[in-house]
């Protein structure tokens, strides 16, 4: 997980040639330093609520517009873009999504959310563009019902065939003796 806004660039992302020149000058540990490549912040304050959708439905709509699976970082970037608020605001939006909003949507069955990886995927029980996808439990239940119906039809067919065979045999063996 990245845990930084997309508009920040790590010093560890610097090309190897530049890093080599700087490493000769300094003998300290290689610690990434994050810097804002876009200049000054265009949004003020730490108003996290200004960037979060008001309802779960609006958040689901935002997620539907994104290419999933996506990380919490990517979702946070999507919600904040084009503004570039202070890092504290970005972190607040990220934390609120990771700890509150996304787990709530996962409990409601709207999405699949892996908290340890920070990855959001579409729920297997929701409709998508290709049609309906079923969860494993629903698919298993439907399979068992169809299997039971097939066994019932086969059993009824066998019982009917056995009954016809017994009646025909009985008629052939016993009817001529009465004639």
Order of helices and strands: EHEHEHHEEEEH
What would the principal axes of the Cα set say about the shape?
rod-shaped
Category from helices, strands and their pairing: mainly alpha
Radius of gyration: 32 Å
Give the biggest beta sheet. 3 strands, antiparallel
Q: What is the straight-line distance between the termini?
A: 92 Å
* Number of individual domains: 2
Q: Stretches where pLDDT falls below 50 for ≥5 residues?
A: 21-26, 33-45
* Average pLDDT for all residues: 74
Number of strands: 7
Strand order of the largest sheet: 3-5-4
Strand content: 5-15%
Query: What is the share of helical residues?
Result: 40-55%
What is the count of helical runs? 5
Transmembrane segments: 132-151, 157-175
Keywords: Membrane, Transmembrane, Transmembrane helix
Region (Disordered): 1-55
3D architecture notes:
This protein has 179 residues and is mainly alpha-helical. The chain folds into 2 domains: 43-132, no CATH class; 134-179. The chain contains 5 helices and 7 strands, in the order βαβαβααββββα. β6 and β7 (131-132) form a beta hairpin. The protein is rod-shaped. Mean pLDDT is 74; it is low at 21-26 and 33-45.
């Amino acid at each position: 997980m990245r845990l930084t806004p997309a508009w920040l660039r790590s010093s560890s992302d610097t090309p190897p040639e530049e890093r080599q020149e700087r490493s000769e000058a300094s003998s300290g540990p290689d610690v990434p330093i994050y810097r804002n490549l876009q200049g000054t912040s265009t949004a003020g304050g730490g108003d996290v609520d200004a960037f979060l959708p008001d309802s779960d439905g609006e958040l689901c709509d935002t997620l539907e517009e994104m290419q999933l699976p996506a990380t919490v970082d990517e979702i946070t970037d999507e919600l904040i873009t084009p503004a570039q608020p202070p890092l504290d605001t970005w972190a607040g939006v990220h934390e609120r999504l990771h700890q509150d909003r996304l787990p709530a949507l996962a409990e409601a069955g709207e999405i699949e959310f892996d908290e340890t990886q920070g990855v959001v995927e579409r729920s297997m029980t929701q409709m998508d563009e290709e049609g309906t996808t079923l969860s494993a439990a629903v698919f298993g239940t439907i399979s068992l019902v169809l299997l039971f119906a097939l066994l019932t039809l086969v059993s009824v067919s066998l019982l009917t065939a056995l009954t016809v065979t017994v009646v025909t045999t009985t008629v052939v063996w016993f009817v001529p003796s009465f004639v």
